[in-house]
């Protein structure tokens, strides 16, 4: 199977009852220039336009330094684009908001709060009644596979467990969009596979829109409805690839699926072509 450029308007998610997906995030001719420490301009993103459909799982893939995180930060409202605009449900994104939940390595857990305390933080901030917040938090902790660890502190948890808490903490805000920046990048292969499976299980239950940055072709194909392949720096969109594989997906089954293998090989090839060093700032 040859990977062909997608025509996003034709894409309809198989949800029950079936209805055409509508755009939740629109990125419209976004460019980002950063000033380097030597006061030179560095073009990090160049004229990015992308529409993300409601409830889609979209991965952004590309060489190091091509601007993947910057794009996610713009959607999160943590960075204002130099030109162009990002919109959420038709409204310009002007800052962070509870409708977009970041799962970024930089937003570490509160070390002085337990697992339960970390997950409770969001509902408390949102003024949810204590009994309800507690019930929701306990359910989320169970959902991410950490039942029994409610009273542990972050320092007592493994890297994978901390990522699970970070996910539960973000889910507790009920964001419509999850923004995940290489959430499993630092984990060993086995833990990573388990968390990928768990994330898909949670996503299949909840069907939030996910924007997921990764360096891993295999991870992007396994998880996504669409893979956005970026060029080396300055980041541009090279191609958007629809991943037409059945759901629910199980890794053990997909590994035997010839179409999965073909997506991985085709995208790896494209990645290798992009993966020369980008222009330094
Ligand atoms: N706040 C900033 N100030 C100046 N330059 C920045 C800033 N943030 C990012 N950059 C630069 O913008 C470019 C894109 O960075 P970004 O982190 O978005 O890339 P990336 O694709 O996520 O990289 P990686 O895959 O290595 O994490 C890089 O050249 C980086 O040095």
TrEMBL record:
* Entry-linked PROSITE patterns: ABC_TRANSPORTER_1 (PS00211), ABC_TRANSPORTER_2 (PS50893)
Entry's SUPFAM superfamilies? P-loop containing nucleoside triphosphate hydrolases
**Which parts of the sequence belong to the ABC transporter domain?**
25-257
Q: Which Pfam families match?
A: ABC_tran (PF00005)
Q: Which GO-annotated molecular functions does the record name?
A: ATP binding; ATP hydrolysis activity
Keyword Metal-binding annotated: no
Keywords on record: ATP-binding, Nucleotide-binding, Transport
Q: Which domain of life is it from?
A: Bacteria
The family note in this entry says: Belongs to the ABC transporter superfamily.
> What is the documented function of this protein?
Involved in beta-(1-->2)glucan export. Transmembrane domains (TMD) form a pore in the inner membrane and the ATP-binding domain (NBD) is responsible for energy generation.
State what protein this is by name. Answer: ABC transporter ATP-binding protein
Q: Which organism is it from?
A: Bradyrhizobium hipponense
